[in-house]
Design a protein that fits this description.
By secondary structure, the protein is an alpha+beta fold. Helix content is 23%, strand content 23%.
């Protein structure tokens, strides 16, 4: 009988991880499935892929197969090693895509005669495989993250046709944006991924959210930050000022003697959330008016005379 190089059949390395093997198998199973494939010898290739995956997906079967070593070549005449007892614990595989080879039977005890030992096979037409999950990223505005609602998005997705060829196609979806969603969170759209084979459902579509930068606000988690310009007299004397928030403008009190960089909190004015919403933090930025006229310069000179003040007095021992 011929030696079967299961790694070569799937096109993976001998140290391939389980996820990689599964991904490659799904791609090849779609490509060679007799119901859709136009490839030459598709049915035989489909059987070979099924058999290789049956071994490599199972930790114990793969370990038993690997005991044969890596010196064998695909198609080489094969005889089990002396005193080879086969794979212990072979059970009903169920759902197989057809009889496996004599090589498989010599290693694992199944194969073409396995029907008589309880090994069941499904006909090719009954082969069912759930579609692959798909992932994409969408951008939303900060206002959309705050208010939620519906949004129409256009996604470039990959689809595999009946000939196993991959194409890019534009899909238009109307999705619901929940209130308070933040960058990095995902929306799951059930059965909007790749179509399944047979009666199996399609996979899911996962949309990762990316909130666009805002010209005025910034985000840290669900907390919103805003830099608010104020005049020197508002900071010195105190004032009530109008502050923009995502829900609309609100009045905020600035205490007398406020300093640049001081952070004022507006509770619950950030992004909605459970159990509590985020807050808005307003950072004061004192803006000095220009002295463009003689009168304006005179006013600054008068302030300098009547309000002697050295802001650098305590700066690393500085003495003016």
């Amino acid at each position: 009988m011929e030696y079967k190089d299961y790694y070569k059949i799937l096109g993976v390395s001998r140290d391939a991880k389980e996820d990689e093997i599964k991904k490659v198998y799904r791609k090849l199973a779609r490509k060679y499935h007799p119901d859709v494939s136009k490839e030459t010898n598709a049915e035989e290739k489909f059987k070979a892929v099924q058999e290789a995956y049956e071994v490599l997906k199972d930790e114990k079967k793969r370990a038993a197969y690997d005991q044969l070593g890596s010196d064998w070549q695909s198609g080489q005449e094969f005889k089990p090693p002396p005193n080879w007892q086969g794979f212990q614990g072979f059970e009903d595989l169920g759902g197989g895509g057809g009889d496996f080879s004599d090589f498989f039977a010599s290693i694992f005890g199944g194969g073409r005669g396995a029907r008589q030992s309880g090994f069941r096979h499904a006909r090719h037409g009954e082969f069912n495989q759930r579609g692959n999950d798909e992932h994409a990223k969408i951008n939303i505005s900060l206002e959309e993250a705050f208010r939620g609602g519906t949004k129409t998005v256009h996604l470039q997705v990959r689809e595999v046709d009946a000939y196993g060829q991959t194409h890019t196609k534009t899909r238009t979806l109307k999705i619901t944006i929940p209130k308070g969603i933040i960058s990095g969170q995902q929306l799951r759209l059930a059965q909007q991924g790749s179509p399944g084979i047979g009666k199996a459902p399609a996979g899911d579509l996962f949309l990762e959210i990316d909130v666009n930068p805002h010209p005025a606000f910034s985000l840290q988690g669900r907390d919103v930050y805003l830099t608010l310009p104020v005049t020197p007299w508002e900071a010195a004397l105190g004032a009530k000022v109008t502050v923009p928030t995502l829900a609309g403008p609100v009045e905020m009190k600035i205490a007398a003697g406020a300093q640049a960089g001081q952070k004022l909190r507006l509770k619950g004015r950030g992004l909605p959330g459970h159990p509590i919403a985020g807050d808005q933090y307003t950072l004061l930025q004192i803006v000095t008016p220009p002295a463009n006229t003689d009168a304006e310069r005179a006013l600054y000179e008068k302030m300098a005379q009547e309000m002697p003040f050295d802001p650098r007095k305590n700066l690393l021992g500085y003495v003016s």
